[in-house]
Design goal:
- The complex is a heterodimer.
- Chain A is mostly helical.
- Among the domains of chain A are: about 295-410, Four Helix Bundle (Hemerythrin (Met), subunit A) (Up-down Bundle); about 415-595, no CATH class.
- Chain A has helices spanning about 5-20, 30-35, 50-60, 75-85, 85-90, 100-105, 120-125, 130-140, 150-170, 180-185, 185-190, 195-200, 225-230, 240-255, 260-275, 280-295, 295-315, 320-345, 355-375, 380-400, 415-450, 455-490, 500-520, 525-550, 560-580; strands at about 40, 45-50, 65, 75, 95, 120.
- In chain A, the strands form three sheets. In chain A, strands 1-2 form a two-stranded antiparallel sheet. Chain A has a two-stranded antiparallel sheet with strand order 3-4. A two-stranded antiparallel ribbon of chain A has the order 5-6.
- In chain A, strand 3 (about 65) and strand 4 (about 75) form a beta hairpin.
- Chain B is of the alpha+beta class.
- Helix content of chain B is about 30%, strand content about 35%.
- Chain B is built from six helices and 17 strands.
- Chain B has helices spanning about 1-15, 20-55, 75-95, 100-125, 165-170, 360-385; strands at about 60, 70-75, 125-135, 135-155, 160-165, 185-190, 195-200, 220, 235-245, 245-255, 260-265, 270-295, 300-310, 320-325, 330, 335-340, 345-355.
- In chain B, the strands form four sheets. In chain B, strands 3, 4, 5, 11, 12, 13, 14, 15, 16 and 17 form a ten-stranded antiparallel β-sheet that branches. A three-stranded antiparallel β-sheet of chain B has the order 6-9-10, with no helix packed on it. In chain B, strands 1-2 form a two-stranded antiparallel ribbon.
- In chain B, a hairpin with a 2-residue loop joins strand 15 and strand 16.
- In chain B, helix 2 (about 20-55) runs antiparallel to helix 3 (about 75-95) and helix 3 runs antiparallel to helix 4.
- Classes of the chains: A mainly alpha, B alpha+beta.
- At the A-B interface, helix 22, helix 23 and helix 24 of A face helix 2, strand 13, strand 16, strand 17 and helix 6 of B.
Chain lengths: ~600, ~400
């Protein structure tokens, strides 16, 4: 039984992973998945409506699930359909998250007014929207670096309300009761001109494909453009108008909850679209499937499991639990690799393009290195470190995804796949390795100080790993930093400009070099090496996140700035670990290494 | 006995610079310096930080109330000046030239080159810009920070004669004379940054120092120098023009005044303007077309590009070039980068850098990267070869 444990666990994990990857049918009779796969041009990228719904909800309320006032759960795409076609109903869904107590009191609301804690509906906000607007206007002229938490909260909430309001002006005017009939009646359409102009000017989504396939992305139009014959309406306008009728018809069916009509109309439209815009439709279908499969969430759980199993293996069943930990890491790693590859294919980009994908990649790189290390030294130490880093980076990635679409377009100066794939990938690998050295040191310290499990052999093998990884980190962070300098020389004419992010990378290089030179000079031995490696965690986390926080102002961290407090508490734990490692060896429960 | 004293001082110095502890100390001091400089960028801006932290031997702090400045931390130049001999001594005294040490050798040689190259860049690099409208031809670039007082003799309709005086000369007190100028210029007052307002709008303006030109109608309010990236300094000065028979009046000049002030003397007409320092090129650039693409449905810039016609004075070059993001034009010892745009996409802003040592970092970084790869490759190889024998108690350290 004990012997079969790794195999049994792996089988269970594989079944679970398989179940998350199976294409899921819609929960109700309406083909929500099909609607979610329809493409729209948003923020410069053609993406499925499913992504629009999910990223919109994440941004507004920090999660994808909507809990209607009746207590039942509304899937993201159904929420989007309601915003488009039943705005009065959508207004009653609590999708605005408000944390700041002063903002709540601005609306005369308390946490007791929300069925779901901190989320409120548009109806609840409506009476005081003018006041919100006034407060946000007061806050806007203040330089973003020195805004108070309240000022930032009102500006953010106003942006959210504006986003929601613009979302309502997408497929038909929110006040239209029977838009399909209106389309056939020029007089009614003319009377409604102001609303349609609002759609043309404010709609975030361009859902109508160009008249001629395949067309360029910028030729996609919104419903207002088509109806009013905007600047791009030009050729073959008959075809786009037909698509506007389709969306109006779909709205009719959704309002009546007539799933048969909805599904058949949708199917017709889909096959029409697939015929002319096959490539776009395929990509959007994949992205929508990718959104539902959530591979990173699954691998996050697997990494955590790997960490727990590896840590447990130091106390009991070293072979079986250790082997199970590796299996869990393997499966999680393969899943994360697939996820990253899928993102690369959808985006047509190298793996790291923004902070979110850097978190994915740092986790991926560290786990990859750990899998390698674990095969050299089978003592579950690298599995534990890899599991922990993988889990932490995916948690960080999840929080970073709350700010909106994680596949955003690259600004002109960054729009270079060559430099993104060389400089960014290399320097991120350097970050990953420095973190890995630090986390291995954390394991050394915790096991040594708190348990008796750190024997001489394990301690030496850990020290060897840390030293090797620091060498690896020095190399990659140096090469990455230099490639960044060359990129800067190519685009701005200076190799080095003392920009905060550049400085952060340079500090990592210097710190790793300092560790190596201390070691070579004999200034440190095992415990000193561990202390310095843990300090590397502080250095790297500052370079990764701290430098970005400078941009939003050094003195402006408010109660709501979770990332800043996350960074501070992480640094505090690392300092505590450094204090622990400096404890005299007599106070350690294990006594592996002798003098520091 | 003197030679002995010299030898022992030399030995002591050699010993000091040959120390790995010094290397570690310098590395850690550099980290602290860069960290502090990065945080201080919020207050000083990137340019101010470079002056205070990196282009200095010491960082000074003022003792409150006394006006005394005390050095509290070594600056970038001092750390570099210590690191360079440290590297050189280690390089030539410590490392034996052998295959096993070849990685370390290359790494440190590359580092020496990098330090020297960055020092050279700091001295030799010039950053200018060129603002050019569509259809316009330009044959000079303008400095970001330095200004000059231009005196232009426009009497001859066929050509102008220009005398440009660097702003630094106006900070002194001595009258400025030039063979081409029939008069002398006496600096009266100088402000590195000032705001100018019409006197009529001020409730109780101070009396103006100016007696001629636009100056008497303008109130000058000196302001501290700004280091912020999106703010501009407006250097301002009062200058008195001294003819053969005495003063011709005191003028106010400032980069805030964009129109030329006129002075007539001995039958010749002179224009006077304070403008960014110019660097004339041995070739001309004509902006044929500027494009600025954004992603559809957003205002995120996708690409900027300037199509330029380049004509050299010796008529050897006459061709069209496209300058866009990450694709500069390198010509005549200068590099032209697409930096921005203005004026509703009618004006293209090019950044112009001349740095004769721009290739040094490429070479040094290639050396270091290769050196590190060799060094750690040797370690890794040794690690894998030793592993199966079970020897595990010693670190694969100490090169």
């Amino acid at each position: 039984m004990r012997k079969d444990f790794p195999l049994a666990l792996s089988a269970l994990a594989l079944i679970w992973v398989g179940s998350t990857l199976l294409p899921q049918g819609s929960s109700g009779p309406v083909d929500l998945n099909g609607f979610g796969r329809l493409p729209a041009l948003v923020d410069g990228r053609l993406k499925p409506l499913d992504t629009v719904a999910r990223t919109g909800l994440l941004m507004l309320q920090g999660r994808q699930r909507v809990v209607a006032p009746g207590g039942h759960t509304v899937p993201p795409v159904a929420w989007l359909l309601d915003v488009f076609y039943r705005p009065a109903l959508a207004d009653s869904y609590p999708v605005f998250r408000i944390d700041h107590p002063d903002v709540l009191s601005l609306f005369g609301l308390g946490t007791g007014d929300a069925a779901t804690g901190v989320r409120f509906s548009f109806v609840q906000l409506q009476p005081k929207l003018a006041e919100l607007d006034r407060q946000a206007d007061l806050a806007t002229p203040v330089e973003s670096a020195i805004r108070t938490p309240f000022q930032r909260a009102v500006i953010e909430l106003r942006d959210h309300v504006a986003y929601y309001a613009r979302l309502k002006y997408t497929l038909e005017p929110p006040e239209a009761s029977d838009f399909l009939a209106e389309l056939d009646d020029p007089a009614r359409l003319a009377a409604d001109r102001t609303s349609i102009e609002s759609i043309r000017d404010f709609s975030l989504l361009r859902v109508v494909p160009p008249a001629l396939s395949p067309g360029r992305p910028e030729q996609w139009q919104n419903v207002g453009h088509v109806l009013l014959g905007g600047p791009d309406a030009g050729t073959g306008a008959a075809d786009p108008a037909r698509r506007v009728r389709f969306f109006a018809g779909l709205g009719q069916a959704w309002r009546a909850q007539d799933s048969a009509t909805f599904n058949s109309q949708l199917a017709g439209y889909q096959s029409d679209l697939a015929e002319h815009f096959g490539a776009v439709v395929r990509k959007c279908a994949w992205e929508s499937y990718f959104n539902k499969a959530e591979p990173f969430t699954t691998s996050m759980v697997l990494y955590l499991l790997a960490f727990v199993l590896a840590a447990a293996s130091w106390l009991r069943w070293p072979t079986e639990l250790g082997r199970s930990a590796i299996r869990m890491m393997d499966i999680g790693f393969i899943l994360a690799t697939t996820g990253i590859l899928a993102r690369m294919w959808i985006e047509n980009r190298p793996p790291v393009t923004n902070l979110y994908s850097s978190a994915l990649f740092i986790g991926w790189g560290s786990v990859g290195l750990c899998l390698l290390l674990e095969r050299i030294n089978r003592n579950a130490v690298a599995s534990a470190a890899g599991g922990l880093i993988g889990f932490c980076t995916l948690i960080i990635a999840h929080h970073l995804s709350l700010s909106g679409d994680t596949m955003e377009m690259m600004r002109a100066v960054l729009d270079s796949n060559f430099w993104l794939s060389t400089h960014v990938v290399t320097v991120t690998t350097g970050y990953a390795a420095t973190f890995l050295a630090g986390f291995l040191a954390v394991i050394y310290i915790l096991r040594g100080v708190l348990t008796r499990s750190l024997d001489r052999r394990t301690a030496d093998s850990l020290a060897r790993m840390v030293y090797g990884i620091v060498c690896f980190a020095t190399f990659f962070s140096f090469v990455g930093t230099v490639l960044g300098g060359i990129w800067a020389d190519q685009s701005w004419g200076r190799f080095w400009g003392w920009d905060p992010k550049e400085n952060g990378a340079l500090i990592i290089v210097l710190w790793n070099a300092a560790i190596l030179h201390c070691r070579w000079a004999g200034l440190i031995r095992q415990r000193g090496l561990m202390a310095m490696a843990v300090c590397g965690n502080i250095v790297t986390s500052w370079s990764w996140f701290g430098t970005n926080m400078l941009g939003i102002g050094l003195h402006s961290y408010g109660f709501t700035d979770a990332a800043f407090y996350g960074l501070i508490s992480f640094v505090a734990t690392q300092i505590l670990l450094i204090v622990l490692v400096l404890l005299p060896p007599a106070r350690w429960r294990s006594s592996p290494a002798g003098p520091a | 006995m003197r030679p002995n004293v010299m030898t022992s001082i030399g030995k002591a110095l050699l010993g000091f610079f040959n120390s790995l502890k010094l290397t570690v100390a310098l590395l850690i001091l550099s980290i602290l310096l860069i960290f502090a400089a990065t945080l201080d960028q919020v207050h000083l801006g990137v340019w101010g930080v470079q002056e205070k932290y990196f282009r200095s031997f010491f960082i000074f702090t003022q003792i409150r109330g006394t006006g005394l400045s005390l050095p509290i931390f070594p600056g970038g130049y001092l750390l570099g000046a210590l690191l360079l001999p440290n590297l050189l001594v280690a390089h030539f005294c410590r490392f034996r030239l052998s295959w096993r040490k070849s990685g370390i050798w290359m790494t440190h040689l590359g580092l020496i080159l990098l330090l020297v190259g960055q020092g050279l860049s700091g001295i030799l690099q010039r950053d200018n810009q060129m603002r050019i409208d569509v259809g316009q031809t330009r044959r000079y670039t303008e400095s970001f920070r330095e200004t000059e007082l231009a005196l232009i003799d426009v009497t001859d309709p066929d050509h102008d004669r220009v005398v440009a005086i660097p702003m630094a000369r106006l900070e002194g007190k001595d009258p400025i004379r030039h063979a081409f100028l029939p008069f002398a210029i006496r600096p009266v007052a100088y402000y590195p940054n000032a705001q100018l307002r019409p006197r009529a709008q001020m409730p109780s303006p101070l009396p103006s120092l100016a007696t001629a030109g636009l100056g008497p109608d303008v109130a000058v309010e000196p302001t501290p120098i700004t280091y912020k990236a999106d703010d501009t300094n407006f250097p301002t000065a009062y200058i008195e023009i001294l003819g053969k028979d005495g003063s011709l009046g005191t003028f106010l000049v400032s980069t805030m005044i964009v129109e030329r002030q006129v002075l007539t003397y001995e039958g010749r007409t002179w224009h006077m303007i304070l403008r960014p320092e110019r660097d004339y090129l041995p070739f001309s650039l004509t902006l044929l077309k500027f494009t600025h693409d954004i992603y559809p449905g957003t205002d995120i810039p996708k690409d900027f590009a300037s199509t330029i016609r380049l004509r050299s004075d010796d008529a050897r070059d006459d061709r069209e070039i496209r300058i866009f993001m990450n694709n500069p034009l390198r010509y005549g010892g200068r590099a032209f980068y697409q930096a921005g745009y203005a004026n509703n996409d009618r004006t293209s802003v090019l950044q112009v850098v001349s740095n004769p040592s721009w290739q040094v970092p490429y070479l040094s970084c290639a050396l270091i990267a290769l050196g590190l790869a060799v060094e750690f490759g040797i370690h890794l190889f040794g690690f894998f070869r030793r592993r199966p024998t079970g020897e595990s108690s010693k670190l694969a350290a100490s090169p």
